[in-house]
Amino acid sequence: MSTFYVTTPIYYVNGAPHLGHAYTTIVADAMARHYRQRGDDVFFLTGTDEHGLKVQRSAEEQGIPPQELCDQNSQKFRELFDRMNLTHDRFIRTTESDHEDVVLEIVERMKSNDDVYLDTYEGWYAPSDEAYYDESEIEDGVAISSGSEVEWVEEDSYFFRLGDYEDDLLEWYDEIEGCVAPESRLNEVRSFVEGGLNDLSITRTSFDWGIEWPDDPEHVLYVWVDALANYLTGIGFGEDPEKFERFWPCDMHLVGKDILRFHAVYWPAILMSVGIEPPRGIFAHGWWLVEGEKMSKSKGNWVSADDLLDEYELDVLRYFLLREIPLGQDGNFATSRIVERNNSELADNFGNLVNRTCGMLDSFNDGEVPSPPSSVEPVDADLADAARRARKEVVRAMDERETHVAVEAAMTLSRHLNNYIQQTTPWVLNREDRHQRLEAVLYNIVEGIRWVAVLMAAFTPDTSRAVLDAILADERSDNALAFETLEWGIVEGGFELAAPPVLFEKLDPPEDEDETPDEDTMPESQEETDEEPDNLIDFDHFTDVEFAVGEILAAEPVEGADKLLELTVDLGEPDPRTVVAGIANSYEPDELEGLRLTFVTNLEPASLFGIESQAMLLAATDEDGNHVLASYPEGVKPGASVG
Ligand code: MSP
Hints:
By secondary structure, the protein is α/β, with parallel strands linked by helices. It is built from 20 helices and 30 strands. Strands 1, 2, 3, 4, 10, 14 and 15 form a seven-stranded parallel β-sheet that branches. Strands 21, 22, 23, 24, 27 and 30 form a six-stranded antiparallel β-sheet that branches. Strands 6-5-9-11 form a four-stranded antiparallel β-sheet. Strand 5 (116-126) and strand 6 form a beta hairpin. The longest helix has 31 residues, at 335-365. The protein is elongated, with a radius of gyration of 30 Å. It starts with a strand and ends with a strand. 5'-O-[(L-methionyl)-sulphamoyl]adenosine is lined by residues 9-12, 20-21, 23-24, 49, 227-228, 230, 255-256, 258-259, 287-288, 294-295.
């Protein structure tokens, strides 16, 4: 059985969790869930980083002992992660005793490899980053890369001979494909190492909140050496050799780009020194920016993870964070974007697909999921092919760490299903009593929904569970989420649908935020590219719009509105829709009855003069500004798709 070991950084406990912490952990959780679905033996580690100057100072500011601050804030992370239903296998704390044992073992090995010596450190240190900086990395008293204030430090320190590992590191970058990704980050790291590495100060003497240096208790271990070793402790290094062997080397250290140097330079060098293989993969993701800037408490643009969860359903937030920006790039955080993605993708595409399907099964098939069809039409074969393509693309994209592409591949299948419904028009099949074909079509739709739910389960787990509970009802097995169930047509059917789930509610756009984020502050990954002329849309966007033939059953003037007519339209569905159309200047109501015209059927309903218009009539305008309607002959039935 393949294994997959994924870690998040462990989080400093000097404050409460924010959007950035939630993001890293959700991406790691999505990976863990995905590989579990593929049958891998997965270990997912997260936790809190509790030693060091930064935590000690926060505790002093609050007038409490550091351990108390750690207990309080670590608990906040743990509660948040429970609230987020994260599937980590261990939540590690660096103040736990098994971790201290691992750290001491690492230090012993570094010493016995003659990689440690005592000297004096003189240089700059930024407590907020727990990082040493060279003179060239500082400007006006702050570290250029992070903006954190630096302090001059002069103290005795033990050093790790990092400089001796330059060649080994460069060789490792070259030989192990994907050891550091994305490629652009690997190049940055490589040039940093090529520029020459100083030995690394790995103890401090000016404070005491850390693991004591063996035989020299004046010194505490540099917090990063302590913290990085959590990745070994988490899977039982020294305690459970079988487990350690199974999961090490780690497949995926997911980290923010700001802490890549620690992971891609210091960490592999330490591992090389202590005789442990370096990790297989380190991936640096980008930052969520607020109005173009990294979040920080002092700038007042800090987004609390708990506040977000108070406001949005967990799956909506997960979907947004995973879909909105390519993994590895920066993205602007704006709640208007969450609302937009929720409304136009989750609610209109996936939610609507499930709702309308449950409705059709109820109205046309006594609420039963039919049995697999005995014959297959080309449109059905296309659908099954699209499902297989989606599965392949989700797998490829996840393996290549393109999470946003994987999410989109699953949603494309959902769109395909909506189109399949428009093409096959189950309501027409029902009206014409073509029962066998109707059942085949309904079966295929349910089967497609099952595939979307399985493919989406790593990204929107609660939704997928609710959908599978509904469409598979009592037939749902424990391994319903496994990718091995993705064989077209394996559901036997012939059972009753459970109550349909309530999926995504439409959300109102936020009032206090600009609808369209400012392009000047929008990272490139989110900007519209100008490679194509503005007036071109891609095929996917076209297929988002549903056109259908509607027969006018009745037409009457709208009181108080000269230009409007209220139409009652048969779109081949169980009930006619009301449509308000601005054609009163060009047509009398009785000219319209019986005409079969083109409608857009999936626009959000709009209220006009107090009447809800549930579709949009398409009409041309002639030279004099009159509306002209193009109608279809009798053979074209209401509900027939246009496109
Ligand atoms: N304790 C260290 C990690 C030790 S791992 C052996 C640390 N902790 S942290 O709490 O400051 O940050 C943890 C992670 O959160 C980092 O990967 C960082 O990139 C990420 N984020 C912090 N702010 C962020 C955003 N605004 N956006 C996305 N992620 C960001 O560093």
